[in-house]
Write a structure and sequence with these properties.
alpha/beta; 2-enoyl-CoA Hydratase, Chain A, domain 1; 375 residues; 6-stranded mixed sheet
Length: 375
């Protein structure tokens, strides 16, 4: 995405604009982003006034000296600073040499490209951060399903399908390698009982364990089984192959007939709701490139262990959607609303060390992609 010009307002200027026209900043007006310097008591007043508006509200501070009392609870969706490794809920530069302007530019580009999805996301997490975790999962599904019927997702889906058709047309001219005949098809999820432990392994390694219908149903069934069996003391969740999980299977996106049916299916065969029945007994092991559901589902677990080379990313907004595997519930409860919003609104990858510093990961140590490696 090209980085647009970013107008960071002084609190006084922001208040004048908001009082003159409260609807000035909104997705449908072409101004979905309100960025304000987080200094002085008026910055708190801006947050308290704008937190109900249909826009993305970002507070920026080059450093954290002399912050006004109450700024961190004033309602800003993201709080950016130029200081390295700042305390929560602030986000500092993730790469050496960056200031807060790089992150603000990424957020501005995202809100310009998909304003409807960005605003829907921030409104969702403002609400869902304070309710029961299961209710938050349901609220996420409502929002996700609504956006599935919107123009931003339709545009992304049309582009994705066109690109896939071009790839398939090119593949059709390449030599065809025959698949072995008679090879049994392995299940998308392997479930094995070992004493009082239940091993649950994502088993689509050729596609980095992308979440298909079969994988979704397999996980929901496995977690429901563990939740109903008190003799299961520990559930170990792993991914076979090079990555724990690369997110949703893009070949199945847009395949349900309508958003209402999609919501009904998502809340009936729900990975998050099933996992929550046994979450206190689940340890998740992450490795490789973890995207979307590959971040959101493990975040529900009691304990998350990540390989040092793991990268984590929430890319759904760029598709015109919000996280759809429980991320607006699970990630928010691990890292806070503001840092969860940062991850989605930038789409930037997070390394394992930073994820551990934020609380998205509990321990960083080597993790392999074997079905049953040593623990």
């Amino acid at each position: 995405m090209a980085v647009p010009e970013i107008d960071v307002l002084e609190p006084e200027e922001a208040l004048l604009l908001l009082r003159a026209d409260p609807e000035m900043f909104a997705a449908h007006t072409g101004r979905p982003l309100l960025a304000v310097r987080a200094h002085g008591p008026l910055a708190v007043e801006v947050g308290e006034l704008a937190r109900w508006l249909p826009c993305v509200l970002v507070g920026v501070a080059p450093d954290l000296a002399d912050l006004p009392p109450g700024i961190e609870s004033a309602g800003y969706d993201v709080l950016l600073t130029g200081e390295a490794t700042p305390p929560a809920p602030w986000v500092g530069p993730l790469r050496p040499g960056d200031g807060f302007t790089a992150a603000l530019g990424a957020i501005a580009a995202m809100t310009r490209a998909v304003p409807g999805a960005c605003v829907a996301f921030t409104q969702l997490v403002r609400y869902s951060a304070g309710i029961d975790v299961r209710d938050a999962v349901i609220a996420e599904s409502f929002t996700y399903s609504t956006l599935q019927g919107g123009p931003e997702f339709a545009a992304w889906l049309a582009g994705h399908r066109a690109a896939r058709e071009r790839r398939e047309a090119g593949a059709a001219t390449a030599p065809v390698r025959a698949e072995p005949i008679g090879q049994p098809t392995e299940p998308a999820v392997l479930v094995e009982r070992d004493g009082d432990e239940l091993w649950v392994v994502l088993n689509r390694p050729r596609v980095h364990n992308a979440v298909s219908r079969d994988l979704r149903d397999g996980l929901a069934t496995a977690f429901a089984l563990a939740g109903a069996d008190p003799t299961v003391a520990e559930v170990r969740l792993r991914g076979a192959g090079r990555s724990f999980c690369s997110g949703g299977d893009l070949t199945e996106f847009g395949s349900l007939p309508d958003p209402a049916r999609a919501h009904a299916v998502r809340t009936t065969r729900s990975i998050p709701l099933s996992l929550l029945r046994c979450a206190r007994r689940v340890t998740a092991y992450m490795h490789g490139t973890c995207v979307g559901a590959g971040v959101e589902v493990p975040a529900f677990a009691r304990r998350v262990i990540a390989d040092p080379a793991t990268t984590l990313r929430l890319p759904e907004l760029a598709m015109g959607l919000v996280p759809g595997a429980g991320g607006t519930s699970s990630v928010v409860r691990r890292v806070g609303r503001e840092r969860a919003a940062f991850l989605s609104l930038t789409g930037w990858p997070l390394d394992a060390a930073t994820a551990a510093n934020w609380g998205l990961v509990d321990e960083v140590r080597p993790v392999r992609g074997d079905a049953r490696p040593p623990v």
